[in-house]
Amino acid sequence: MRSAVGAAIAAGIMAVGLVTSIVGTFLPWLKSGSTTRDSYEVLSLRDLAGLDGVAGSVVTSIWVGLTPLAMVVVALYVVRFRRFAACVGLLFGTISGTVALLATVQGDSKGALVGISIAGPVVTLAGAVLTIVGAITVLTSNRRSAVITGGNP
Fold it and tell me: Mapping DSSP to helix (H, G, I), strand (E, B) and coil, where does residue 147 land?
């Protein structure tokens, strides 16, 4: 019973991480002057930066696909594919966490006309960490227990 409760708590942590990461993508990621842009608005600027080729399309598709991927994780967990949901959650956390970590490492550029706004990347990174911790805990929890009965030689 104890591991079932632990796995449920881990799934809850993973769900909170998914929601936190998605919310973080809508927070400010870039500031220019007094204007801030979320991660999706930053992606729309890729044409101006000359990234309008295949690489830009792949990056955009992956990033925009994070929200549906989070919904897939929840749906898989609801239909009792817990370990598969945790594996997809690890993929989600790795993608969102890597991008958020790179933006966070660049830091808040105070006083610059154009720079990284730290709020979005930090919240997304925190959500990615929670997602990964919850997913690893779900994967390592032992949900099944053997029942030992005596009498059979």
Answer: coil
| pLDDT per position as a tens digit, 72-121 | 999 999 998 989 999 999 999 999 999 999 888 877 666 667 778 888 99
For the residues of 92-146, what is the DSSP string, one character each? HHHHHHHHHHHHHHH---TT-SEEE-SHHHHHHHHHHHHHHHHHHHHHH------
Place of tokens 């993973």: 14
Return the amino acid letter for 77. Y
CB within 8 A of 119, min separation 6: which ones? Answer: 27, 28
Alpha-carbon distance of 30 to 19, in angstroms, equals 21
88: Cα separation from own chain's centroid: 10
- For residue 37, what are the contacts with CB-CB under 8 A and spacing of at least 6? 28, 29, 30, 31, 45
Read off the pTM. Answer: 0.81
